[in-house]
Design brief:
Layout (H helix, E strand, L loop, with lengths): L10 H18 L3 H19 L7 H8 L17 H10 L5 H21 L7 H13 L1 H6 L6 H20 L6 H15 L1 H17 L5 H26 L3 H11 L9 H7 L20 H20 L3 H20 L10 H18 L7 H46 L7 E4 L2 H8 L2 E2 L11 H7 L5 E6 L13 E3 L9 E6 L9
Parallel strand pairs: 1-2, 1-3
Antiparallel strand pairs: 3-5, 4-5
Helix pairs in contact: 2-5, 2-6, 5-6, 5-8, 6-16, 8-9, 8-10, 8-15, 8-16, 9-10, 9-11, 10-11, 10-15, 11-12, 14-15, 14-16, 15-16, 17-18
Length: 509
């Protein structure tokens, strides 16, 4: 192994590596137009094809309700972090328009993709960064969640920034801002999902020691500082509202089905057919074609690493990105007993880098094979894009139907006198309550936040609606309340609303 292959082995080695990276980047041209084009296309495609008619989901309703004037804040359960609420606050606190929120978040997502990849401009060639951005952005998961008030995409961006800045700090002693950028990336990820930030920081800490990176003790301190700064609010809230950090972690584990040893790879494979959540994931594998890229991913990553090794360039960068991506995926694949495709977005963002490197290198073989290689890569990417589009279109269509149905349920509740200030409990209470302008309070389950006695007492002062599925039974103490069958709304199971304290409509206006 050449001395310069171990990035950061010595200041001189780091300087040589820096010069090599700079020459390679210069040879490939400025990444600005490449990344601007990818980020702009990502934003426009999402706004045109996915965002229209996309109402707030279950988790989004919880996060947005913390700052929205539309309804009282929903119960904030132990696993959640408030980072995404801070991100949506500038719009959600001013308007209840979901369209405005979608446009704002989509624009932020496009800018976030650009900035997260821009950090890597001194590390990898522009075509590789553009290809990585396009691969990541074209995944149906990325496209679906681009404008949603969900934290996982933003953890992905924070991870890209943190790993890129770590490598720049390790390789380039003259880069004064890279260590701070690394700490900021880790802190941002921690603000969104504290546990993800821990899994992000661990491989970077190991890499700093193994690579004998320049200023590695400082990097370790900054990594710890970033995690602590990002988790600080979550930890303080644990003591104020959950009985301490250990109690919050225990409750979070309980809500997630008790963390332990699980083999959830097959669950994630089945979820890739367009499921938002697969819990329990005992469902048929309906669309194998939608999961082919998942099986190809390890092979493509290995091919990218092999190409970097043969080229004797960018090997350290791609190895660190791969290890960090694998570390971020591991807890969701092996410690959580269910699947949600969005959980793996941070891993996909980092693994897109070696995949892109391999694809770009594959298009640069000997002259006689160039056209064949380009044609094969183009055909594979076109087939991949077609599959991803079909999945995201199907998923968005389901959410649009849910949006219309839930809106009609909320309107029906308002019509029978359940109007603010009001409380809704029971089946799908969080999404329906937010749309109706009511508080949501659950008597049991993950969002348990009120006792049956407290809920019954509330009915003496404000409208309270208990939503019961068609085949379900209301609680004993609410069976004598007036019942209002809600209209049959397409695919959704029929609901009945047991209502007490309903307010008649004001007809004096």
């Amino acid at each position: 192994m050449r001395k310069t292959d171990v990035i950061g082995e010595t200041p001189a080695g780091a300087a040589v590596a820096t010069r090599q990276g700079t020459v390679a980047a210069a040879a490939s041209g400025s990444p600005l137009p490449w990344l601007a084009a990818v980020s702009t296309a990502f934003t426009l495609v999402h706004l045109a094809l996915v965002a229209p008619g996309l109402g707030l989901g279950w988790d989004e309703s919880v996060y947005v309700s913390q700052v929205s004037p539309q309804a009282p804040a929903a119960f904030f359960s132990a696993p959640r972090a408030r980072g995404i609420t801070y991100l949506v606050a500038p719009v959600a606190a001013l308007t209840t328009s979901v369209t405005a929120l979608r446009v704002f978040m989509a624009l932020l997502a496009g800018c976030g993709l650009f900035l997260a990849l821009w950090v890597w401009r001194r590390l990898l060639p522009a075509p590789v960064l553009a290809m990585a951005g396009a691969l990541f952005a074209s995944l149906w998961i990325t496209m679906f969640y681009a404008s949603q008030a969900m934290p996982n995409l933003w953890v992905a961006y924070g991870s890209l920034v943190a790993v890129g800045c770590f490598l720049r700090a390790a390789q380039q002693p003259s880069d004064r801002w890279a260590p701070a950028g690394m700490a900021a990336g880790v802190a941002f990820a921690a603000l969104m999902r504290p546990t993800d930030a821990v899994w992000l920081a661990l491989p970077l800490a190991v890499a700093a020691v193994v690579m004998r990176a320049w200023r590695w003790p400082l990097l370790l301190i900054l990594l710890a500082t970033g995690v602590a700064a990002g988790c600080a609010q979550w930890i303080v809230e644990a003591y104020l509202s959950y009985g301490g950090l250990a109690a919050r972690l225990d409750r979070a584990s309980e809500i997630q089905g008790r963390l332990g040893w699980y083999f959830s790879v097959d669950d994630h494979v089945r979820a890739l057919d367009g499921r938002m959540l697969c819990r329990p994931c005992d469902v048929p594998w309906r669309r194998p074609a939608a999961s082919l890229w998942f099986f190809a991913l390890p092979l493509l990553v290995a091919a990218g690493l092999r190409a970097a090794t043969r080229a004797r360039r960018h090997r350290a960068e791609l190895v660190v990105a791969t290890v960090a991506g694998a570390a971020l995926a591991a807890p969701y694949l092996f410690t959580v007993g269910y699947a949600a495709p969005r959980f793996l977005l941070p891993a996909y963002a980092l693994l897109a880098l070696p995949v892109a490197y391999g694809l770009v290198r594959a298009c640069r073989p000997r002259p006689w094979g160039r056209r064949i290689a380009v044609g094969l890569v183009a055909a594979a990417l076109a087939a991949h894009l077609a599959v991803q589009y079909r999945v995201v279109d199907s998923a968005a269509d389901r959410v649009r139907r849910d949006t219309a149905e839930l809106g009609r349920i909320a309107a029906e509740l308002n019509a029978v006198g359940v109007r603010p200030p009001c409380v809704v409990s029971g089946t799908d209470a969080i999404r329906i309550a937010f749309r109706a302008g009511c508080a949501s309070r659950q008597r049991s389950g993950h969002d348990e936040s009120i006792t049956p006695e407290e809920l019954a007492a509330m009915a003496r002062h404000r409208p309270v609606a208990i939503l019961v599925a068609e085949e379900g039974r209301p609680p004993t103490w609410a069976r004598a309340w007036p019942v209002h069958p809600l209209p049959d709304l397409g695919r959704r199971t029929g609901l009945r609303a047991y209502v007490l304290g309903a307010r008649p409509a004001d007809t004096s206006r």
